[in-house]
Amino acid sequence: MLTELINHLIYDWAGMDPESKFTGAVHFFFYDTIKIFLLLAAMIFVIGVLRSYLPDHKLKQWMSRGGLWGNFIAALFGAITPFCSCSSIPIFISLLRAGVPLGVTFSFLITSPIINEYLVVLMAGSFGIPITIAYVGSGLFIGTIAGGVLGKMRLEKHLEQDIINASDSQSGQQSYTVMGRIRYGFDEAVQVVRQIWLWVLIGVAIGAFIHNYVPEEMIHGAMAKAGIFSVPIATTLGVPMYGSCAAIVPIAVVLFQKGIPIGTALAFMMAMAALSLPEAIMLRRTMQLKLIGIYFGITTLAIIFTGYLLNALALYL
To answer: Is the pTM for the entire model greater than 0.85?
Structure first.
């Protein structure tokens, strides 16, 4: 239905040449843009309604438990929150003020931008269920283990105590009516779409360009030169960049279709989502540069390891 409507608009109404690369790019852009926004709005609304049932004080209590359990709960909480790396920082600060251990809060900060409901929907439609499950599992693994390692290093002394120790007013769980929960989900869907719509358009536009203009031979040549180092190179390139996963998924899909190994493409996605220069600048208000460097370094190593693992698993998926 959607494809037929777009074909009518582009080929019949606009009279564009179906054989040209530019027409192909336009078709790709309109089709993926409409599909992504419909999926995003629907899924964020559903998850928003479900999240209205989660009591914050219970989450903080679970996260403060010993061992890796707290790290896993924090990573899982991060996975169901539709935030980019920068949007996760206020919650990261709130958890620190509430007394949640530093390593546990890092598990949330790492996983929140890597995994979220709209990313899962986009990946399931683009890469299939097995690869999506592997990606979600690896994201939770990175958040849990990297947060656990950071917690064992006892790095609290590198926090900026003035902002961490500031008073944090904690309210109890808000009571919602049925209509209130629906309004909550609707407002969250509107808010998230407003935050990421530009990144979605940019990502789809870049994906459309690569899909129709970048020769497959050039991609294969670049990957052949990188060889075994393709995963760390992709991860390193992703760190200085900034964007939401909703923006980078269309690019990753096209690069994968052009021959880039799936683990390499997803490592680039993870690095771009979880580690960014704007995030580092915002984190400087809460922690010293040494701690930011350690956090970025450990997370980068975890992403590289996961990229290699996904490349190996792709042989069996």
So the answer is: no
Question: Cα(71)–Cα(67) distance, rounded to whole angstroms?
Answer: 8
Cβ–Cβ < 8 Å for 275, 146: no
CA dihedral 243, 249, 255, 257 (to 10 degrees): 180
Structure tokens at 158: 């590198």
Instruction: Provide the pLDDT confidence category of residue 47 given band limits of 50, 70 and 90.
Output: low
CA-atom Rg of the chain in angstroms: 21
8 SS3 class:
helix
Task: Answer yes or no: is 170 within a domain.
Answer: no
Question: Which range of residues forms the domain containing residue 38?
Answer: 20-156+177-313
Strand runs (DSSP E) across the chain, as ranges? none
Reported confidence tier of residue 230, pLDDT bands at 50, 70, 90: confident
Residue 294 lies in a domain: yes
Tell me whether residue 60 is in a domain: yes
Query: Is the confidence at residue 254, as pLDDT, over 60?
Result: yes
Residue 9 domain-assigned? Answer: no
Task: Give the C-alpha separation, 235 to 267, whole Å.
Answer: 6
Q: Give the separation between CA 298 and CA 103, rounded to whole angstroms.
A: 12
Measured CA to CA in angstroms, residue 23 lies from 7, 205, 267 at distances of 10, 13, 31
Whether the CB-CB separation of 188 and 44 falls below 8 Å is answered with: yes
CB neighbour list of residue 161: distance below 8 Å, 6 or more residues apart: none
Residue-wise pLDDT tens digits, 106-152:
999 888 878 876 677 777 877 778 888 888 898 899 899 999 999 89
Domain count, the chain: 1
CB 286 within 8 A of CB 97: no
